[in-house]
Design brief:
Length: 250
């Protein structure tokens, strides 16, 4: 019987970005990236807050929608990966405690999140949840400090991210200043994980050794100058050590 996985994009990538990544890795399976048109999404860019938005259905609406109304893709082994927007998970987090935020995404296997000033604090507040969160950021491989921005200067691990992915570019820093910008196929790395059955099964099993092994295989096939390796942070083992329902016991 096919497994069903659930992935959230929290200001990380949208349909067009994922479609680009799928093309870059030569994905030949079936993908529906034109599902339910949520009225809260007007574009893939939030002008008011200068933030990148996803355009997938709301994660908080997942129980209301039929499969034909969802965005999803089929893996090589026939499993289904549903793709969700972070609405209801990150939105208005300042007015929610961690338990309320987690409850609306109880079955999420993996969250891709930016490290924007709005999202990094949200990730930090969910450190107690056991949620596996991947950073997708221009600060890939660095501590996220830019003296000209509002970013907080914390590493991916310190903030509670278990993985570190580049986006379409990442910056090289020296002394708090950008000294170089590297253009990459970051969305190919995202696409390779959400279509890889071994990685998804390892995530569902919350097995550290299997996850590391799956990522190592992915990095061997994707590790080029245009697609740098997926980085595993020190926080992954800590997150896996927290029961998924720990927040409900508090």
């Amino acid at each position: 019987m096919a497994e069903e996985y659930h992935v959230v994009s929290a200001f990380s990538f949208d349909r067009a970005c994922l479609a680009e990544g799928l093309s870059q890795i030569g994905y030949k399976g079936h993908a529906q990236l034109k599902g339910y048109q949520d009225p809260h999404i007007e574009s893939n860019y939030d002008v008011k807050n200068d933030l990148f938005c996803s355009d997938f259905p709301r994660v908080s609406d997942q129980k209301k929608l039929k499969k034909e109304d969802c965005d999803y893709l089929i893996t090589p082994e026939g499993n289904v990966v549903y793709l969700w927007d972070d609405f209801g998970l990150w939105k208005n987090l300042k007015n929610l405690d961690a338990k309320e935020s987690i409850d609306c995404a109880d079955n999420i296997d993996l969250i891709f999140s930016s490290s924007s000033p709005e999202h990094q604090p949200a990730v930090e507040r969910l450190r107690c949840s056991g949620k596996i969160i991947a950073r997708t950021s221009m600060f890939y491989g660095s501590n996220g400090y830019d003296e000209k921005s509002e970013y907080g200067g914390k590493s991916a691990s310190q903030s509670g991210y278990s993985f570190d992915f580049p986006r379409f570019k990442y910056n090289v820093f020296k002394g708090g200043s950008i000294v170089d910008t590297v253009l990459v196929d970051g969305y190919a790395s995202i696409a390779s994980t959400v279509t890889n059955d071994d990685f998804l099964a390892a995530m569902r099993a919350r097995d550290y050794g299997r996850i590391v092994g799956a990522v190592e295989v992915l990095n061997v096939t994707r590790n080029t100058t245009r697609s740098p390796p997926i980085l595993i942070t020190d926080y992954l083992s800590k997150a896996l050590g927290i029961p998924k329902d720990a927040s409900k016991q508090t």
